[in-house]
Write a structure and sequence with these properties.
single chain, mainly alpha
Length: 79
């Protein structure tokens, strides 16, 4: 899973190898849903841990760029 996240970050940051074949790129694209689900889980777990340690929903929402109300709803959504 870590490799998939690293690959996604490489693409997002523009550091992916420009010589990669279409097959490699399609394989990477196929991994996107798993990467997205993993990141959603990490976000949810980290937000709940931050809340347990004293963060407010306003702080958590600001970190996500959403309202405090949306942050409280986000924690309830399962992957």
């Amino acid at each position: 899973m870590k490799k998939m996240i690293q690959d996604a970050l490489a693409i997002a940051s523009g550091t992916a190898d420009k010589r990669e074949t279409a097959d490699v790129l399609v394989q990477r694209l196929a991994s996107a849903p798993a990467v997205r689900a993993t990141l959603d889980e990490v976000e949810r777990e980290t937000a709940l841990l931050a809340k347990e340690r004293g963060a407010t929903w306003a702080q958590i929402g600001a970190a996500f760029g959403i309202t405090p109300e949306a942050a409280t709803l986000r924690r309830k959504i399962s992957p």
